[in-house]
């Protein structure tokens, strides 16, 4: 239970008798019960979102490879001396036109910059 005390007035006015102020008692038990009932209701009735699987289009095993647009392909090659080579499109065309480039592992100026430009 909760008790709210309001202090008595200490002012004295001639001709008036002081009134005694009674303390006000408020029972909070029903309010707490209602809160727990509402929480229980919402916890038991809410329906959580079910996990959803995405369909992934995979090529058939042993079949033709999936077509990829020339402008979408970026191939990165690494060698044993910590060098990074990259080219756009198909290997045969890039090698014939001498468009195989060298870069570093740097995120700011090297491979990171190439990937950001491709995006």
Task: Describe, in plain words, how this protein is organized in 3D.
The chain has helices spanning 29-45, 91-96, 111-118; strands spanning 2-4, 24-26, 74-78, 84-88, 101-103. It is elongated. The strands form 2 sheets. Strands 3-4-5 form a 3-stranded antiparallel sheet, with helices on one face. The chain has a two-stranded antiparallel sheet with strand order 1-2. With 119 residues, the chain is an alpha+beta fold.
Work out the radius of gyration. 39 Å
Sequence of secondary-structure elements: EEHEEHEH
State the end-to-end distance. 65 Å
Which residues sit in consecutive blocks of at least 5 with pLDDT less than 50? none
Number of helices: 3
Whole-number average pLDDT? 79
Which terms would index this structure?
single chain, about 120 residues, alpha+beta, 2 domains, two-stranded antiparallel sheet, 3 helices, 5 strands, about 25% helix, elongated
Topology:
Layout: E1 2-4, E2 24-26, H1 29-45, E3 74-78, E4 84-88, H2 91-96, E5 101-103, H3 111-118
Antiparallel strand pairs: 1-2, 3-4, 4-5
Task: Summarize it.
The protein has three helices and five strands; from the N terminus they run E-E-H-E-E-H-E-H.
